[in-house]
Amino acid sequence: MSAGIAAEADELEQYFEETVARDRRIEPRDWMPDAYRRTMIRQIAQHAHSEIIGMQPEGNWVTRAPSLRRKAILLAKVQDEAGHGLYLYSAAETLGADRADLTDRLITGKQKYSSIFNYPSLTFADVGVIGWLVDGAAICNQVPLCRSSYGPYARAMIRICKEESFHQRQGYELLMTMMRGSDAQREMVQDATNRWWWPSLMMFGPPDADSPNTEQSMRWRIKRHTNDDLRQRFVDMTVPQAEVLGVTLPDPDLRWNEERQHYDFGQPDWAEFRRVISGNGPCNTQRIANRRAAHEAGAWVRDAAAAYAAKRERASRTGAVPPALRGEVRATREGGAHECP
Ligand code: FAQ
How far apart are the CA of 206 and the centre of ligand 1, in A? Predict the structure, then answer.
């Protein structure tokens, strides 16, 4: 490397470091270290995959929701999750990632998604508990990501967090309604809480001492808090909500620590966590098989969209407009609406 090029590289790196240190955003066209780009793609892709796979546990209840109102709410929530996945895949594309490649990595098990979505949703109370605990944990983790150093990710997070907040409230409202119902309904809520509590704590990732990525991601201000800090925040936020709801959190070690001004709590089963993230959780196989089947069943839509785009491109280049595109090309030329007749 010539001295001139080396000096320019140093300058770019220094500018990157200063931008991060000043809490300004790194944008897609800015220079960034390769390792920063790789880390961002890894985190954003895993996050996008989580949103897409995360549609399945609740999607499982759309046809069996107990009323039209609950069905409409659930459909809207699952649809929001698809939208979150799409914003996030777009954010990953701004870093040079290829969308088809990311999907391939998901359906071949090469890239992770959140451990939480590998647990089954056994009753309708699970829908409420997913909203309360899973979206609650997602909010705790994601609100600080609105200040993440990569601009497109941070901006996507702002909108996602607004919607997650609505999701969390709908879950809590559903549980409140069930808790005012019959003994059987109250038991369903308690049972779902027992099953989802520990997996929700695992969403924040391994303990800091076993988290290989946290230190560097904190330095780059991708992550703004460590896994353990966020887990503590979530516990502190959730215990009073459980009390109002009237459910017991399944942790005998859970108690207020006056000195620390935080709740003490037990540790999740980290061996189970490792099993789940390495593909051996209760529903990993089924989740990936469903996603792969949906992807394959959608091949004709992608083919049709690509053929249509190619036809349009040809028409605008050659002026030879096939009958099916005449109205659209005319409207485009005249600056009107892009609608087929
Ligand atoms: N599951 O060194 P760290 C949602 C992996 S919310 C699976 O600590 P990092 C909304 C980690 O990737 C859920 N894998 O890693 C919704 C790494 O593996 P790698 C999604 C996990 O990145 C609600 C290794 O372990 N949210 O979808 C998990 O610094 C309801 C070592 O870990 C996000 O993705 C886990 N729980 O910290 C949708 C938030 N934890 O890549 C539907 C953004 C760790 O080296 C319904 N992501 N791993 O092979 C983050 O904040 C971070 O990436 C963490 C992990 C905190 C998840």
Answer: 9
pTM: 0.92
**Single-letter code of the amino acid located at 38:** R
Name the residue with the closest Cα to ligand 1, atom 5.
205
User: Residue 161: CA atoms inside 13 Å, Cβ hemisphere, count?
Assistant: 16
As a whole number of angstroms, the distance between CA 78 and CA 95 comes to 27
Mutation to probe ligand 1, out of 40, 87, 112 (largest number of atoms < 8 A from CB) = 112
The Cα 34–Cα 24 span in angstroms is: 19
Tell me which residue has tokens 């099993």: 275
| Chain-centre distance for alpha carbon 180 | 32
Two structure tokens written together for 241: 């909500």
Neighbours of 341 (CB within 10 A): 9
Q: From CA 286, how far away is CA 62, in angstroms rounded?
A: 18
- How far is the C-alpha of 61 from the C-alpha of 330, rounded, in Å? 46
Q: What is the pLDDT of residues 111-167, one digit of tens each?
A: 999 999 999 999 999 999 999 999 999 999 999 999 999 999 999 999 999 999 999
Q: 262-264 and 255-257 as β-strands: parallel, antiparallel, unpaired?
A: antiparallel
Taking CA atoms only, the protein residue closest to ligand 1 atom 52 is 43
What spacing in Å lies between the alpha carbon of 77 and ligand 1's midpoint? 21
Handedness of CA 207, 213, 218, 219 (dihedral sign): positive
Among 39, 41, 43, name the best residue to mutate to test ligand 1's pocket (greatest count of ligand atoms within 8 A of Cβ). 43
Q: Which of 211, 217, 276 to mutate to test the pocket of ligand 1 (most atoms within 8 A of CB)?
A: 211
Taking 50 as the threshold, does the pLDDT of residue 187 lie above it? yes
